[in-house]
Amino acid sequence: MIITEINTSRAGDKYETTSTVNGYTKYMKLKIRNVGPNDFGTYRCVAKNSLGETDGNIKLDEMPAPTTAILSEMAMLNRSLVFI
């Protein structure tokens, strides 16, 4: 018999963790709200059981926001070409 169990917890308005157990498998998710400069970096996930311990790293990198000024100028240029 497979039992599915879902648990969610919150640490204020910033973080939310969700763990889902499905049979012998457990999935965990970390949600970060209102991501800011202090949130970028490496996060570590550690899993332990009677057989031992393992871990994994997830790196959250900042990406520059796309510029819209160039796209707007191109859109205006395309409109003027259409109407000529």
TrEMBL record:
Lineage top rank: taxon: Eukaryota
Residue ranges annotated for the Immunoglobulin I-set domain, each copy included: 26-60
InterPro entries registered for this protein in UniProt: Ig-like_dom_sf, Ig-like_fold, Ig_I-set, Neural/epithelial_adhesion
Keyword Disulfide bond: yes
Gene Ontology cellular-component annotations: neuron projection
Keywords, ordered alphabetically: Disulfide bond, Immunoglobulin domain, Repeat
Designated name of the protein: Immunoglobulin I-set domain-containing protein
Organism of derivation: Lucilia cuprina (Green bottle fly)
